[in-house]
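Aim 2 progress update. The chain analyzed this quarter is reproduced below.
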Amino acid sequence: MSILSSTQGTPERVWSLVSIIAAGDGELERSEASDWLNPGYMKDQQKIVEKGEAFGQVLGAATALGAVQAEGKLLRLHPTCPTTDIAAFADWCHEQLCSLASDQKDAVILETYAWVASRSLELRETRWFGVMSRDEFADAAARALPDGKDDDGDRRINTSKLASWRRWLRFFGLMEELPLPVARSQPSSTLRLAKEISRSSLPRETVIPADDFLAAFRTTMPYLDGGQMFAEYMRRQGINAAPKTLSPILSSALRDLHDAGTIELKTLGDLSSYVRMTGDSKHGVSDFYAVEIRGALQ
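Predicted structure tokens:
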């Protein structure tokens, strides 16, 4: 079962399953894990238990991620799966998906994001994401992605999977909910980039050339500018962007972190080294030649 076809296997429920198995020293009977995750409730002196398919979908998502291994009736945690806190688990799951080859069905989560980022660079804005209907978005994404079917026999991305797709991206810090009367999601890599900067070995309080700074995240964030997934969707869509021009999604993240004091985008230097940003034309920083990471960043 793929992650997106396991629509009831939300990140939080998968984390609950991981925590339950961890409490059993890393292994637990499937039936016991199901009882813990779906304890049921009493109604009219009868115990009502949630349909078994709900637990099956949580387990399906957990096994698709590689966090849990099902061996007959026994469930075991992957030895590298973190169990200390949900943030570390989110980082681990993100790494798992970044390592997938394009022909693996769950690669669709980040590959669809790479398509969104590359199309946003072509259009130099992200407003299109919010105005497309679910059907339009799913059809356009399916056309852009490599041919292939999901476990359910349907397309790897479709309207029924979009809610799950957005939910996992929010879990990874790649999507945000806009504070509007009607909830609406918007691609945003600010939280993910901040996390990857904090985890990086890049020097603090040191001026880093823009190209070197950006290159440091092409493997850990392959769906953004310069990364393998991003480059593939630029090629597939025939997009020829101007050299040293960043997508609105990455540009917005850099501006957010600059405004927050997490990094400083250096704007006075060698013009030939400047990297240009797209998106927010009203922001005070439109291009930069270097980046400085604040030493207090954790």
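The mean pLDDT is 91. The radius of gyration is 21 Å. These observations will guide the mutagenesis experiments scheduled for the next reporting period.
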